[in-house]
Specification:
mainly beta; three-stranded antiparallel beta sheet; 1 helix
Length: 158
């Protein structure tokens, strides 16, 4: 029997994956039912019916109750929630999110509400593309640098 031998070590492994909790600090996680397919680590908002959906207008990002869709390792797809699933949504705390570009410390967060080429609803970016992305008022960037992932603080947690 042959066993595999590790021959390389990553110098800069990813610190997190979209949808993972950043740490075990105080957090609030609620459950909303998905009205659309929701990938892990995306911004979601609570619809008028009290359900989780991806933003499709600037008001979905800037007004109302928003949070981050957390990972559920029991989902067979491994990438997100399907319509009708109970979505674990962090509304206060710290979580890893999906980004469309590499962010840098001090960047203002913008969440995508209009999708196009190479863009995904609910993903984060760092430029003021006001026609397709808005700043969620209760979120700030905690940790960045890697493409496709960053950590954010949601709510009043430091």
């Amino acid at each position: 029997m042959t066993t595999a031998v590790q021959t390389a070590v990553s110098v800069n492994p990813l610190a997190g994956t979209p949808g993972l909790e950043y740490d075990d600090s105080l957090s609030d996680v609620v459950s909303w039912i998905a009205t659309v397919a929701i990938p892990f680590g995306r911004l979601v908002y609570e619809s008028a019916e009290g359900k989780a959906t991806l933003p499709t207008a600037t008001g979905n990002v800037t007004g109302g109750r928003v949070g981050i869709a957390l990972i559920d390792h029991n989902k067979p797809s491994g990438v997100g929630y399907e319509i009708g699933d109970a979505v674990r949504v962090m509304v206060r705390g710290r979580a890893w999110v999906a980004t469309e570009e590499a962010l840098a410390f001090g960047d203002t967060l913008f969440a995508r509400f209009a999708a196009g080429t190479a863009s995904t609803l609910g993903a984060f970016r760092n430029d003021a593309d006001t026609a397709t992305a808005s700043t969620p008022p209760n979120m700030r960037l905690l940790r960045a640098g890697a493409t496709n992932v960053a950590a954010v603080s949601i709510g009043d947690i430091s």
